[in-house]
Amino acid sequence: MRDSTIYQPLDPNGGIRVLILEPDSDGAEIRCSLTHENLHNDVEYKALSYEWGSPKDSKMIKLNGESVSVTNNLWWALWHLRKHRRITRLWIDALCINQKDKYERGHQVSMMGSIYRNAEVICWLGRGNDNKQLDRAMRYLENTPDEVNPQELLYSWDIDNHSMPSSHQVSVDMASPRARNNHSSLSYHDPRQYSDRYQSGYSSNYPSILEISPNIEALCSLTYWRRTWIIQEVVLARRLMIWQGDVCIDEMKFFGLCKRVLLHSLTEQGVLMVEAFRILHLRRYGQSLTLMQLMEFSELSSCQDLRDRVYAMLGLASDGQQLIPDYTKSIEDVYKDVMLMHTLCTKRNNLRTVYFSQLVQRAFWPLSASIVEYYSETPGTETQRTDYQDYWGRLWYHKMSL
């Protein structure tokens, strides 16, 4: 691939590339082209949210006439999306950003907040053909009767003045053994109260909510939901559409039913999804989140570049405007930038600054000797961070004790 042929310089003042996906033509190879647009104009496109996957598992497409290697998951997303003729203009980070140009990459990442705010986001969960459990769950959600109002499920929090339960309450309560067996300890409405109403719209041969719950939970346990970037993509999107294979589901149907499952699920993915719902709710009512809060929410997430543990949050953070993504910098330099920004914003050194420093260190050096030493020498803790529920609970307990 000749980058100089495919990627021409972008306008530094709002310039982006939009991928034009050619429609399917009797199973022909996937063909795309790139066009330059500007976010200051009224640009129409859909942004693809997906899991990159391993570069070792790849396929070829044509991009601006050149053969380009893409990961298998992205190839299947393009293969399915090109069947829908209304989906022709896409923003895809791996293709619309010159990934080999670190300066362009940093500049485009700094614009991602605006990119997702202007877009309908397609959440691509994968092909799904080889997993009957996922297929069954998606078909169930797809066929949810219109009479059922999933929005009521999605926003059935026990709230006053549009405020969500505290992060500490969500994390610690859900992580505790007591909460696993006693749902009354949570501050949510019991989702089972909706079972009869939800089930009434289905025919007698349709699976009940209890029968389909393991399938729905499998959707929430996909590694897709553990991505660091998922928080920004879901929260900022103008609209969300959930895709798996050829099945497309509106966000209200998907998240409305998944919320019920998450209240019964205590996996790390379930915790992250609950936090995504909470951020989404807060953002809709104009409440801002700091970089520290966002990094707390995303601590159990994963990304290929550890610098994205910070950079992926800047489009949301109320105090992140002073940080400019720069992929030419080392992790150590990014750490210094983050702490300098935090110190300037807080204008004082206190226990929260120490806590934030530890939080960033855990994000950048998750397997550092100091962290392992802490867990090995502290009574009641474990050296391996595999019990995410227990770890999440300890983390929030530490936060609230400051």
From TrEMBL:
Boundaries of every Heterokaryon incompatibility domain copy: 45-233
Pfam families in UniProt: HET
InterPro entries: HET, HetReg/Transcr_Mod
Superkingdom assignment: Eukaryota
Protein name: Heterokaryon incompatibility domain-containing protein
